[in-house]
Design a protein that fits this description.
Shape: globular
Number of strands: 13
CATH superfamily of the largest domain: Dihydrodipicolinate Reductase, domain 2
Strand content: 15-25%
Bound molecules: NADPH dihydro-nicotinamide-adenine-dinucleotide phosphate, N-acetyl-L-glutamyl 5-phosphate
CATH architecture of the largest domain: 2-Layer Sandwich
Number of domains: 2
Distance between the termini: 40 Å
InterPro entries: AGPR, AGPR_dimerisation_dom, AGPR_type-1, NAD(P)-bd_dom_sf, Semialdehyde_DH_NAD-bd
Protein name: N-acetyl-gamma-glutamyl-phosphate reductase
Helix content: 25-40%
GO molecular function: N-acetyl-gamma-glutamyl-phosphate reductase activity; NAD binding; NADP+ binding
Mean pLDDT: 96
Oligomer: single chain
Radius of gyration: 20 Å
GO biological process, one term: L-arginine biosynthetic process
Main location: cytoplasm
Order of helices and strands: EHEHEHEHEHHEHEHEHEEHEEEH
Number of helices: 11
Structural class: alpha/beta
Length: about 350
C-alpha cells in the first residue's frame, strides 16, 4: 500500500505508550494524526494531558469508541491488557491495527491463559522485525502485535548466540527497567518514596508474563525449545531497560572475538541494532528517545558462559518506536521513517 498521507488514530493517547506513539508520529512526514482517545480523561484538553506534545495542545481527548476510531488508515492501540481484542475485531479488516498491548503476542492459548488468566484472543504477526522471518510476515499485515519491552531487549541480546549455535538453549535474563514500563496509571510501589534511591526485584521465579514471550521468540531463533529464567528489576529512572543475558557455551573454547563476529554478522543489515565497539558496554541514556538497541557481548571463560548486555528505551524501540517501525513495514514505507538512532547524553 502506498499513499501520500496516512491518517492515524491513537487509542490510549493519554497514556505513556500512546503518548510516545504521538510524539514519534509528529516527526513522521507521511502521517496525519486524527483521533486521540482515552477513557477516564475523555473530554480533557490534550495540552493538559501531554504538555510535551505542543503541536497537539489544542486537541481534545475523545472516548475510545468504534465510531471515533473508524475511518482512519491506521489505528494504534495503547490500551490496558484485555481491552484491544473487542475494538480490533470491530474495525474493518483493511484498517491497519497495531496493538502495543499483549493480547495478540502469544501463539499458545494454554500459555496465555496460564500467565494472563483470561481467554486467549488469538495471535497476530509479531512486531520484532530483527528476528528471523518476522519482517516478511509484517509486510502488508493489517494486524500487528507489538512486543513487550523486556522481550524485545532480552530476545535481541541473545538471539545471535543461539542462532549461531554458540550457546545451549538455557538462557538467564536479569533486566532492570525504568518505572514508565509500569504505565502512567500505576501508583502502588511507584510513588517517589518507594522508587527513589531504591532497586527492587519483582516477578521472580519464572512468573513474570514476559517469560513465555521471550521463550517463544528464542524458540523461533534456536529451532528448539529454550529454557528461560527471567528476573526483572525496577530501578529509579523514568525510561530505559538494561538486560544482562547469559547462557552456557557449547564449546568452552569459544572466544569473545568469535562471539562478537556472530553478533556483527547477525545484525549487519539492521539499522536499529548497534554492536558497540569492543570493550564499550551499553548504557540506557544512549538510547533514550531513540529507536536504537545497543549491544555488547563477551565470554566469561571461568564460568563457561557467553554474557551479553543490551539496552533499549522501553517506550521507544520497546513499544512506540517498534509500533511505528512496524507501520512503516506494513505500509511499504522506508522502515526508519520518523525514527532516529540518536539518543541523549549526558
Ligand atoms: N509502558 C511500557 O513500557 C509498555 C507498555 N506497553 C503496553 O501498552 C499498553 C498501554 O500501556 P501504558 O501506556 O504504559 O499505560 P498507561 O496507564 O500509561 O495508559 C493507559 C491508556 O489506556 C487508557 N485506558 C484505560 N482504561 C481503558 C479502557 N477500559 N478502555 C479504553 N482505554 C482505556 C487510558 O486512558 P485514560 O488516561 O483517559 O484513563 C490511557 O490512555 C499496555 O497494554 C501495555 O502493556 C507495551 C510495552 C511497553
Ligand atoms: C517496570 C514494569 O513494571 N514493567 C512492566 C512491563 C512493561 C511492558 O512491556 O509490558 P506489556 O507486556 O504490559 O506491554 C511489567 O513488568 O509489568
Amino acid at each position: 500500500m502506498h499513499m501520500s498521507q496516512v491518517s492515524v488514530a491513537i487509542a490510549g493517547a493519554s497514556g505513556y505508550a500512546g503518548g510516545e506513539v504521538a510524539r514519534l508520529l509528529l516527526g513522521h512526514p507521511g502521517v496525519t494524526i486524527g483521533a486521540l482517545t482515552g477513557a477516564s480523561n475523555a473530554g480533557e484538553s490534550f495540552g493538559r494531558l501531554q504538555p510535551h506534545l505542543v503541536p497537539l495542545a489544542d486537541r481534545v481527548l475523545e472516548p475510545t469508541t468504534l465510531e471515533v476510531l473508524s475511518g482512519h488508515d491506521v489505528v494504534f492501540l495503547g490500551l490496558p491488557h484485555g481491552q484491544s481484542a473487542e475494538i480490533a475485531k470491530a474495525l474493518p479488516d483493511s484498517t491497519v491495527v497495531i496493538d502495543c498491548g499483549a493480547d495478540f503476542r502469544l501463539t499458545d492459548a494454554a500459555v496465555w491463559e496460564k500467565f494472563y488468566g483470561s481467554p486467549h484472543a488469538g495471535s497476530w504477526p509479531y512486531g520484532l522485525p530483527e528476528l528471523p522471518g518476522q519482517r516478511e510476515a509484517l509486510a502488508g499485515a493489517t494486524r500487528i502485535a507489538v512486543p513487550g519491552c523486556y522481550p524485545t531487549i532480552s530476545s535481541l541480546t541473545i538471539a545471535p548466540a543461539l542462532g549461531a549455535g554458540l550457546v545451549t538453549p538455557d538462557v538467564t535474563v536479569v533486566a532492570a527497567s525504568g518505572t514508565s514500563g509500569a504505565g502512567k496509571a500505576a501508583k502502588t510501589n511507584l510513588l517517589g518514596s518507594e522508587v527513589m534511591g531504591n532497586v527492587s526485584a519483582y516477578g521472580v521465579g519464572g512468573v513474570h508474563r514476559h517469560t513465555p514471550e521471550i521463550a517463544q521468540n528464542l524458540r523461533g531463533v534456536a529451532g528448539t525449545d529454550v529454557v528461560v529464567s527471567f528476573t526483572p528489576l525496577l530501578v529509579p529512572m523514568p525510561r530505559g531497560i538494561l538486560a544482562t543475558v547469559s547462557a552456557p557455551l557449547v564449546d568452552a573454547g569459544t572466544t569473545a572475538a568469535q562471539a562478537r563476529e556472530a553478533y556483527a554478522a547477525a545484525y549487519a543489515d539492521e539499522q536499529f541494532v548497534h554492536l558497540l565497539p569492543e570493550g564499550i558496554w551499553p548504557q540506557t541514556q544512549s538510547v533514550l528517545g531513540s529507536n536504537a538497541v545497543h549491544l555488547q557481548v563477551t565470554v566469561d571463560e571461568a564460568a563457561g558462559r557467553l554474557v551479553a548486555v543490551g539496552v533499549v528505551d522501553n517506550l521507544a524501540k520497546g513499544t512506540a518506536g517498534a509500533a511505528v517501525q512496524c507501520m512503516n513495514i506494513a505500509l511499504g514505507l522506508p522502515e526508519a521513517t520518523g525514527l532516529t538512532t540518536v539518543g541523549l547524553a549526558p
